[in-house]
Amino acid sequence: MPRPDDPLRGIALSVGSTVLFSISDATSKVLSAHLPVVEIAWLRYVIFVLMAGVLARRARPRAMWPRSPVLQVIRGICLVGSSLLFIFGLRRLPLAEASTISFVSPVLTTMLSVPLLGEHVGVRRWAAVAVGLAGVVVVMRPGPAGFQAAALFPLGSALCWALALVITRRMADTERPSTTVLWSACVGVAMLSPVLPFDARWPTPGQMGLAVLLGVLASAGQSIVVTAYRHAPASVLAPFSYAQLVWAGFAGWLVFGALPDRWTLVGAAIIAASGVYTAHRERLRARLSA
């Protein structure tokens, strides 16, 4: 018998995860001023592996072998790329601006779902995609006076994350969530470990503590998101993920004394409106197909 939905609990968990993600992003920005990006990502993934191992400890070893190992590896590579590019962006951009640009990922997911999943996207959803991309342009402010090349890093991070989401959707009916989480963590450590000796610095006790905090918060946030989506449909929860833009702006002001400028706020509103409308169309489509 399927589990009954509990939308309020799902919404509460979803909003809670955005708080954790905002704190972990602020922690990454602090660490990026002192430690190499690869090292920060490696420390995060080590914690990720430990926590994923705890979640999978009750499963039989054979059950943790995926049915689509190639897709699992590609998904893991995409997640590593998303993490690295976002941290690179945090080095040069305010937290709120980097977070806002990265939230174009739902728009990119819609675009990628057509060639990779064979999904049909109607005119209205394509219009929402165009609006979301316009919001990113507003935040990036192309032109000699306002454009920063560093803005391409969170945009690339969003593209990697969108590809990972599409792959996750493709494997949804064949793979266990615990298997996917464990493989993503292991692929990350396997990719970053060979590079670490060439770009590493011994962290101070304080920096190590922040790195552990980063890994715990990011991993806990991922677990909470998975739990949230067990209690409510994606179309219900998607709009509430934009609460992270608020927390990112607050964290940027509290930790770094930086407030988002008006163009970042305008772009964030446009991107959020695009995402909310896309979620609304998903809800209508789900009702029609029920």
Task: Provide structural commentary.
- The protein has 290 residues and is an all-alpha fold.
- It has one domain.
- The protein has twelve helices and no strands.
- α4 (95-102) packs parallel to α12 (262-289) and α6 runs antiparallel to α12 (262-289).
- The longest helix is centred in the C-terminal third of the chain and has 28 residues, at 262-289.
- The chain is globular and about 55 Å long.
- It starts with 6 loop residues before the first helix and ends with a helix.
- The relative contact order is 0.22.
- The model has no long low-confidence stretch (mean pLDDT 83).
Question: What order do the helices and strands come in, and which of them pair?
Answer:
Elements: H1 7-32, H2 37-55, H3 69-92, H4 95-102, H5 105-117, H6 123-140, H7 152-171, H8 177-192, H9 205-231, H10 234-237, H11 243-256, H12 262-289
Helix pairs in contact: 1-3, 1-9, 1-11, 2-3, 2-8, 2-9, 3-7, 3-8, 4-7, 4-11, 4-12, 5-6, 5-7, 6-12
Q: Which assembly state applies to the chains in this document? A: single chain
Low-confidence stretches: none
Structural domain tally: 1
Q: What is the overall pLDDT average? A: 83
Helix content: over 70%
End-to-end Cα distance, whole Å, is: 17 Å
Radius of gyration: 19 Å
* Strand element count: 0
Structural class: mainly alpha
Instruction: Summarize the main sheet.
Output: none
Q: Number of helical runs?
A: 12
Beta content comes to under 5%
Order of helices and strands: HHHHHHHHHHHH
Shape: globular
